[in-house]
Amino acid sequence: MTIENIGQIAIRARDLPEAVTFYRDVLGLEYLFEAGTLAFFMCGDVRLMLGVPENDAVDHESSTVYFQVADLQAAYEELSERGARFVDEPHLIAELPDHELWMAFFRDPDGNLMALMSEIRN
Question: Which backbone phi and psi does 57 adopt, to 5 degrees?
């Protein structure tokens, strides 16, 4: 067996309408549909599922989702203007042999940590 890709990422959303607005209007992701207490978006080939926690056992912050962008500074400025709450500015993470890895972290309305990332080729 070989895992080939990510089919879907689930993200907790306590206030689904607020989360839908953030992911659709602030991040600009493609809104697919809602089903009960779930909302679905596409980000490239990966589907994101926002869901209202069913109980305390699943009511926790998500894993960090890293959104790839070509121009980190431009994306940072645009999302800041749209209301994204960044916890830091774009910064260098690693200098690798053929590229630099840059990131900037932000939180969604539920406090889930997200990041913009850009790989800049040398």
Answer: -65, -25
> Which residues on neighbouring strands pair with residue 92, listed in sequence order?
102
**How do beta strands 8-12 and 85-86 pair?**
unpaired
3-state DSSP call for residue 41? strand
In the DSSP assignment, the letter for residue 64 is P
Q: pLDDT for 59-68, tens place per residue? A: 888 888 999 9
Domain boundaries along the sequence of the chain: 8-121
Domain 8-121, second-level architecture: Roll (3.10)
106/113 Cα distance (integer angstroms) = 6
pTM of the model: 0.83
> 53 and 12 in contact (C-beta within 8 Å)?
yes
Cβ neighbours of residue 97 closer than 8 Å, sequence gap 6 or more: 122
